[in-house]
Amino acid sequence: MLQASHAHQVEFHHSYAENQKQPVRRIKRVYKKTSSQKTILLKTGFALFVYALLVVYLCIKVSTMGYEIVRLEKDIDKLQASNHMIEFKIAEQVSLDRVEMLATKNLGMCKPDVSRSIVVAAQKPEPVDLASQTSVADINQNNTKIGEKTLQKLYSNLMLLAEKR
User: Fold this and answer.
1) What is the SS3 assignment for the chain?
2) What is the pLDDT along the chain (165 residues), one digit of tens a residue?
């Protein structure tokens, strides 16, 4: 029995040694079962996170624009106040009292006497007939008459002023 068992061991070792020389490689592939609910939940969570970041960014942008609007309104108020101040200074410089003072002191002007005042009565303007047809010669004669009348009035006023002095 010894021999039989020894022979069996030799055979076993021999067959084992042959198997050791030519190992069969098997690649085990392990597949993980993933739940579709987990992937959907993960994608939804990521989308909500991006949406929350967008909302926070927009809120920050709106608040900074609000502060900018307030700052610009304050600038507008300051500019309007300075504009009113400049308008007041202009009105002060152009006021009749100041002009009179500058005219009398700096320019040496004086107020006119009542006796030196001349009053000229305004004439009624002549009515113009637009419907009538006039020739070029008539228009030239009327223009010279108007010019002569104006010159005559000016000359008579100058003569009146010269007589009163």
Assistant:
1) CHHHHHHHHHHHHHHHHHHHHCCCCCCCCCCCCCCHHHHHHHHHHHHHHHHHHHHHHHHHHHHHHHHHHHHHHHHHHHHHHHHHHHHHHHHHHHCHHHHHHHHHHCCCCCCCCCCCCCCCCCCCCCCCCCCCCCCHHHHHHHHHHHHHHHHHHHHHHHHHHHHHC
2) 445 555 555 555 555 555 555 667 788 888 777 778 888 999 999 999 999 999 999 999 999 999 999 999 999 999 999 999 999 999 888 888 888 888 888 888 887 776 766 777 777 777 766 655 555 555 555 555 665 677 777 777 777 777 765
